[in-house]
Design a protein that fits this description.
heterodimer; A: about 500 residues; alpha/beta; Rossmann fold; four-stranded antiparallel β-sheet; elongated; B: about 500 residues; Polyamine Oxidase, Chain A, domain 2; seven-stranded mixed β-sheet
């Protein structure tokens, strides 16, 4: 009976041993790429460490073999079980020590696993088992355990549970083996109380980690963002994170700040009202981007406006800002207003098929940080926009910072001009962003800066408007090319400009 | 294998039923590739209406395209270089279809930017890493880099070199190039021998030159005329006001979009009323025979529907024979009478394979390198792959895309490679087609939904040494009268500009 328990342990122990090896290999190839290299080097390191473990097992005295086996199980359980979670956390924090920690973990787990089988064999041998039968049974179950895990891991465990939780589960199995062995052989070993205590600690830690494993990712993010995270979501298009610190609510998309409730009124008043105040008869407005509904909130202040069409790529974004009580309080339920029509589509694709014309078009898209986004700031895109603009209408484009990214900002101006627009660039200080820029554009050559606003404002007035359209000596236009699809100069300017600013 | 069954039936002189109808017209254009459509476009533009285009076994020829899950993709040529100053015929065409929007005949015309290749245009996978350039500077040793720079300088000089006859040394169309012996004598040796003679040793440069020959001429540089090899680099001097030098024009389905626009401008009559002589007409079918008859030309056209064949006889005052010469050699009566002896004058033709991979998602890129339009693998067996959705103005990646992998099967003789194509199993073909993509992506297959492979046994003519003085080609270029020849084969190599040029020449003779 007791021998059977030991053989069952061999089966479980072998499964766990292979599982840690597979998890480490999969994690490494998942995070570092180059599957063949990662798997080969991890298997090599692991097998070598097992050899070291087998060698070390000779230094364990015969009478301690069983107790040592139990301690090894507990150690494997805690180290192997937490290995994947630990590696994820380290990778999120910095990539340099990742490899070192990875191979160190693999080696330590390998050494411990290498000690298991020799110890079990010695225990069985010491219990007068017949050599021939014992070796055969131990190794049979050893290899059988490996087979079971090699099938379960890719087919069930990895896809259903993921790496972290799979490792934690096997850690619990190791701890279970330790506790079971301690219980069955409690007469033959000393200090079972201590073993039980250690076992309980290991099990509690593993179960705790299992319960909080999804929160761990969130914790990693919180240490990056600083503030408390009230909503985090990964959509097919982006990672949305909303944070709060006291009364300041902030939206980050892919880690970039989109607005802070402290000063977003400055950004959105400046985006909307210079154009709208100049279009007293405006009836329909198109907004590209701006899924937070804050630009739409400003637009809805104009009672003569009949239709606002908002085109945003990400349904998760517009859904969140239509339904969350906290967020609809900020955008004043703009996205569910009957005058507003929300469309989730790719802006360029949608414009190619839409047949309407708009009095104003607000382009509030993410900064041109990659070639895909750069396409939406290009000459053909603005030509397409121009086709949808009423004859006397205005376009306004959020155009990154004229102070931090002057080449990028003036490139947007040059691109609009190349597409046949007259332009009136302007800028405003948004404390959480710094100096920020916009370009107002139209197909006709007349624009007068508003000297008053008909709708109530928090920030804009005649004098702040005058300052917006004035570019002081430290913000003059450099010589730049328009953003053509053939070279996407804007993306290069944007990268170079911000590279200079961000340390 | 477009056209193979029809072509081999013609070669083997299969029996045909007697004509079921006679059709009369002023001009018949036999073949609807770039040359045939260019001729039709010119005729229509100059007000001619009474002509028929016979589509041939594959409509659009090497400008054909396809659609996979609603995504257009090429099954033939996928781009057009910016037209050179000499390519006035191409510029006029591009202006007519709205691709050139300003200064059509100037040094730097303005093009529709949606058609100018978007950045990133190309990249090279070498030693496990992607580079922006096909001849990346940062990889090779200084001695090799110096050679690359010397080669680039030579090409720059040749681009602007002008002969004693006032013509550019290397012009597209090649017929407008200078006749000066100093450049024409380069046609006597292979491009590889020329590189060696000039002291170029860099393996990367040799690979690049070889790649260029395989890509444009379907054969390795050891088999390509040095004149043609240099022509590839030096003739493409076209510029655009709104693009960088070296930009190209491309569409999701390659040149299919361009010829579709040409067809729209030609204004073919709707329906199939072949007897309505007031509008340009087109008909399916391919020519079984073309011969001079009385003062005109008589063509026997085979139409296949279901399993049945029928034949129609077209009697025309003029015919433009816009088919490849290896087909014309079997179809046109008395080719030797026109000065063309197939046995000695037929250009070597290269087999091609174009494999369209319908991708249900984009595979993960090494080191997050952005996917380019044209993606080339250093020392790869194929010629790399182009991305059909590259030109879309989209932020999000489309649901599906198509990667088109090109391969000129040139490691053995064209005859041997054609035999291999005929006997290879689908698995063997797929293995070959996926060669480059498998080198680029570790996890390719989970992203692949379907693969369609187009095989072109005689994809294009290869300009082997001596092609400039091929007497048969020179004779066919001059053939005037009831029958004319128009095909890029007359230039000895296959690009749109050459095909369009001979279409233009033939049509002009009839105006």
């Amino acid at each position: 009976m007791r021998d059977r328990i030991l053989i069952l342990s061999v089966f479980i122990v072998a499964s766990c041993g292979l599982a840690y090896e597979l998890i480490a290999g999969a994690l490494a190839s998942y995070l570092l790429g180059d599957t063949v290299l990662q798997f080969s080097s991890i298997i090599g390191c692991y097998l070598f460490a097992m050899g070291v473990g087998s060698h070390l097992s000779r230094y364990v005295k015969d009478e301690d073999a069983l107790a040592c086996f139990i301690d090894v199980e507990l150690l494997v359980g805690i180290i192997g079980g937490l290995s994947a979670t630990l590696l994820f956390a380290i990778f999120a924090w910095a990539s340099a020590p990742f490899r070192t920690v990875l191979y160190a973990l693999v080696f330590v787990v390998g050494v411990l696993v290498g000690m298991e089988i020799p110890l079990v064999m010695r225990v069985l041998y010491g219990r007068k088992a017949e050599m021939r039968e014992m070796v055969s049974r131990v190794l049979t179950f050893d290899y059988l355990g490996a087979l079971v895990v090699s099938l379960l891991f890719p087919l069930v465990l990895a896809p259903r549970l993921g790496m972290s939780r799979t490792a934690l589960l096997f850690g619990l199995l190791n701890a279970g083996v330790a506790l079971l062995t301690a219980r069955v052989f409690d007469k033959e070993i000393k200090g079972t109380r201590g073993i039980r205590l250690r076992g309980a600690i290991v099990v509690i830690m593993l179960i705790g980690a299992l319960a909080f494993s999804s929160q761990l990712t969130r914790w990693a993010e919180q240490s990056v963002f600083g503030d408390q995270i009230v909503h985090a979501e990964t959509t097919p298009y982006q990672r949305m994170v909303i944070t709060r610190w006291q009364d300041d609510l902030r939206l980050y998309l892919n880690g970039n700040l989109q607005f802070s409730t402290r000063d977003e009124h400055r950004y959105h008043e400046a985006l909307i009202h210079p154009a709208m105040q100049s279009l007293p008869g405006a009836r329909s407005v198109l907004v590209l981007g701006g899924g937070d509904g804050l630009a739409v909130r400003e637009l809805l202040k104009y009672k003569t406006l009949e239709h606002v069409t908002l085109v945003d790529l990400d349904p998760a974004m517009t859904h969140l800002f239509s339904t969350s009580a906290e967020l609809t309080a900020i955008n004043e339920h703009a996205l569910t207003n009957p005058r507003v029509h929300v469309i989730n589509a790719d802006a360029g694709q949608w414009l190619e098929t839409d047949a309407h014309s708009y009095d104003a078009i607000v382009i509030d898209l993410p900064d041109p940080s990659n070639f895909a986004l750069g396409k939406l700031y290009s000459v053909p895109m603005y030509r397409l926009v121009s086709k949808h603009l009423a004859e006397h209408g205005y376009v306004v484009v959020q155009s990154t910072s004229p102070y931090f990214a002057p080449h990028a900002f003036w490139c947007v101006v040059a691109t609009l001009r190349e597409a046949g627009f007259y332009t009136w660039p302007y800028h405003v200080n948004v404390p959480s962003f710094g100096e920020w820029g916009y370009v107002l554009a139209s197909r006709h050559d007349s624009f007068t800066q508003p000297d008053h606003y008909d709708v109530p404002m928090h920030f804009l007035d005649a004098s702040s408007t005058r300052e917006m359209f004035h570019f002081p000596a430290d913000m003059l236009a450099p010589d730049v090319e328009p953003n053509r699809l053939n070279n996407q100069a804007l993306v290069h300017y944007f990268e170079q400009d911000w590279h200079r600013v961000i340390r | 294998m477009p056209g193979m069954a029809q072509g081999h039936a013609l070669r083997d002189a299969a029996k045909l039923p007697p004509p079921s109808a006679d059709i009369d017209c002023d001009i018949v254009i036999i073949g609807s590739g770039a040359a045939g459509l260019a001729a039709a476009w010119r005729l229509a533009k100059e007000g001619r209406r009474d002509f028929i285009v016979v589509e041939g076994p594959e409509p659009d020829g090497n400008a054909a395209g396809a659609s996979m899950a609603g995504q257009a993709c090429p099954t033939g040529a996928h781009y057009l270089p910016l037209p050179s100053m000499e390519s006035r015929h191409v510029r006029e065409m591009l202006q007519d279809v709205g691709v050139i929007v300003g200064d059509a005949y100037g040094r730097q015309p303005e093009f529709d930017e949606r058609v100018l290749v978007h950045t990133p245009q190309e990249r090279l996978l070498r030693a496990g890493k992607w580079y922006e350039d096909l001849l990346p500077d940062e990889v090779d040793a200084p001695a090799q880099r110096a050679e690359h720079q010397r080669f680039a300088r030579t090409i720059e000089q040749l681009k602007s070199a002008v002969g004693s006859d006032g013509r550019r040394a290397f012009a597209i169309p090649v017929a407008l190039s200078s006749q000066d012996a100093q450049w024409r004598m380069l046609d006597k040796l292979s491009f590889r021998d020329w590189l060696t003679r000039e002291g170029y040793r860099s393996a990367a440069l040799h690979w690049y030159a070889n790649y260029a020959c395989r890509d444009d001429y379907g054969a390795g540089y050891e088999r390509i005329s040095a004149y043609a090899g240099l022509h590839y680099f030096a003739s493409r001097a076209g510029e655009a006001r709104n693009a960088e030098p070296g930009a190209v024009l491309t569409w999701p389905d390659g040149l299919q979009s361009l010829v579709r626009a040409l067809r729209a401008r030609i204004g073919f009559a709707a329906g199939s009323r072949l007897d309505d002589r007031t509008a340009p007409r087109r008909m399916s079918g391919f020519a079984a025979s073309v011969q001079l008859k009385g003062k005109g030309v008589e063509a026997l056209i085979v139409q296949q529907e279901g399993g049945a064949s029928r034949t129609l006889r077209i009697r025309a005052r003029h015919a433009i024979c816009a088919m490849p010469l290896h087909v014309a050699a079997h179809v046109v009566n008395d080719m030797p009478g026109f000065g063309f002896d197939a046995a000695t004058h037929l250009p070597q033709s290269a087999p091609w394979m174009i494999a369209n991979f319908l991708m249900r998602r984009f595979p993960e890129e090494r080191a997050k390198s952005p996917l380019a339009w044209d993606n080339v693998i250093y020392a790869g067996k194929g010629l790399g792959y182009v991305v059909a959705t590259h030109q879309l103005i989209r932020v999000a990646r489309p649901e599906y895309t198509v990667f088109s992998a090109y391969d000129a099967l040139s490691e053995r003789s064209p005859q041997e490679m054609r035999r291999w194509l005929e006997t290879a199993t689908p698995t063997e073909l797929l293995g070959r087609a996926a060669g480059d993509l498998s080198m680029a992506y570790e996890h390719l297959w989970p992203c692949v939904e379907r693969v369609d492979i187009t095989l072109r046994g005689h994809g294009m003519a290869s300009p082997t040494p001596g092609y400039l003085s091929n007497k048969g080609l020179l004779a066919l270029r001059e053939v005037d009268g009831p029958l004319q020849f128009a095909h890029s084969d007359l230039s000895g190599y296959s690009v749109f500009e050459e095909a369009a040029w001979w279409g233009e020449v033939a049509a002009r003779r009839l105006l």
